[in-house]
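Q: What would this chain look like folded?
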Amino acid sequence: MTRFARVLAAIVFAAALPAQTLQTPEDFFGFQIGADRKLARYDKIVDYFKAIAAQSDRVRLRTVGPTTNGNPFVIVEISSPENIRNLDRLKALQRKLYFQGGAPTDAEREQIFRDGKSVVFISNNIH
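A: My prediction, written as structure tokens:
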């Protein structure tokens, strides 16, 4: 696995850890992530994310469609429990800030700056 994949696994585990004790990636996969000649299969990575999301109120897993090979294309959203509960509203604020659905008024812009959160998307693939 790439350095990015190791970092991502660490972030997922660390983000979910404060509220619960979760199975580590190494325990789940049976080897240290990033070890030479060891690759986690995509379906097992999805299974791990499902397990973490089921155990933690800090992780939300969504399937947004199929990959070109017919596998589930998943998004793992990681934040505080409060942000996860309000994530759809936070995303709507962010979209409004970037003129999706029209330009925000001055009052809307101030609300976004006051109530909004940064939403960051990180994507990874091996090709």
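Residues 3-80 form one domain.
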